[in-house]
Design brief:
The protein is mainly beta and 123 residues long. Helices cover 0% and strands 46% of the residues. It contains no helices and eleven strands. The strands form two sheets. Strands 2, 4, 5, 6, 9, 10 and 11 form a seven-stranded mixed β-sheet that branches. Strands 1-3-8-7 form a four-stranded antiparallel β-sheet, with no helix packed on it.
Length: 123
């Protein structure tokens, strides 16, 4: 069974930076698309950063230019580097592995999920 464990969340002030990590069991990121889906209180989970098996990536407009998704295949770890954080970035951040290897922004095409890591940004 695939397991994914996020870390790196925390509390920062507006303008600060964080790097989230997601370590997966096995080598799933060698064969699947991966993504980060934050969920703010009272809101639905929405993807913000996506990376395909071969490395092409996409970002939701709100984080574009402020965030970078990457992965280390040897460490089976997915990253999300976030900078210029704003209070609106406050959310539980989940990493996800897709059903397939191609780049996809659709939540229903992600099959495996971690437990989340909390990011809180104060003004």
């Amino acid at each position: 069974q695939v397991q994914m464990l996020e870390s790196g969340g925390g509390s920062v002030q507006a303008g600060g930076s964080l790097r989230l990590s997601c370590k997966s069991s096995g080598h799933i990121m060698n064969s699947r698309a991966m993504a980060w889906f934050p969920q703010a209180p009272g809101s639905e989970r929405e993807g913000v950063a996506f990376i395909a098996m071969i490395g092409d990536h996409a970002y939701e407009d709100f984080v574009k230019g402020r965030s970078t998704i990457s992965k280390d295949r040897a460490k089976n770890t997915l990253y999300l580097q976030m900078s210029s954080l704003q209070p609106e970035d406050t959310a539980m951040y989940y990493c996800a592995a897709g059903l397939d290897y191609g780049l996809t922004l659709r939540e229903n095409e992600y099959a495996y999920w971690g437990q989340g890591t909390q990011v809180t940004v104060s003004s």
